[in-house]
Amino acid sequence: MIKEKRLRLAPKERRNQLLDSARDIILSRGFASLTMEAVATEAKVSNPLIYKYFDTRLSLLQELLGRELIRFYGDIKLKLEQAEKYEDVVRIAVTSNFDEGANGNIVSILRSQPDIEASLHPTNMTDTLGVGELLVDRLMEFYPVKRGQAAKMTVFASGVSQAAALHWRLHGGNRKRMIEDALQFIHAGMANFISSD
């Protein structure tokens, strides 16, 4: 039997390869299937090599969550910056909440584990990559409101979309219809908020 030669990677590339392997195992076989040995097998590396990069399974998972959050929120931020209408901004935010809360999403799987979630810096949990601040800024571009009002409107809208995503995850139904209903509710609420001020 010919032994497969291991590909030499730069440390950063190897670290990402190991994280990718861990992500793939969780998504394909479930969270409980993730062991350091399974990651080694998936990545086609020796068991000791993994411990060169990650001391424990928990440290690997915590780093994976941090990396995936940066990717997830980076994508949202890019979309928000490119949106031309506030309706598009709200749709991006609501759809993103559904994507984060959907079954099978690596971010939601990892965040459901208290020991992994606890590793996040508090500022990352509330405003990863400045997405919340960007939502407030975009709201002020489209509506004649002050920063405090825009922040309050953003929090309310976020709560509606997160609640709708949770309801959909628990009870199922038509995802597209649930998103449209949440959008309609948010837009009506914003219009009422602005007219009452």
Entry summary:
The chain is mostly helical and 197 residues long.
Rounded Rg = 20 Å
Average residue pLDDT: 87
The percent of residues in helical segments reads over 70%
Share of residues in strands: under 5%
The count of DSSP E runs of length 2 or more, i.e. the number of strands, is 0
How far the N terminus sits from the C terminus, by CA atoms, comes to 77 Å
What shape does the CA trace take? elongated
**What does the main sheet amount to?**
none
Uncertain spans = none
Oligomer: single chain
Total count of helical runs of at least 4 residues = 11
H/E order of the elements? HHHHHHHHHHH
Structural class: mainly alpha
Question: What's the arrangement of secondary structure elements?
Answer:
Blueprint: H1 11-29, H2 36-43, H3 47-53, H4 57-82, H5 86-101, H6 106-111, H7 114-117, H8 122-127, H9 131-142, H10 147-171, H11 175-196
Write up what this structure looks like:
- The chain is mostly helical and 197 residues long.
- The chain has eleven helices and no strands.
- It has helices at residues 11-29, 36-43, 47-53, 57-82, 86-101, 106-111, 114-117, 122-127, 131-142, 147-171, 175-196.
- Helix 1 crosses helix 2 and helix 5 (86-101) crosses helix 11.
- The longest helix has 26 residues, at 57-82.
- The protein is elongated, with a radius of gyration of 20 Å.
- The model has no long low-confidence stretch (mean pLDDT 87).
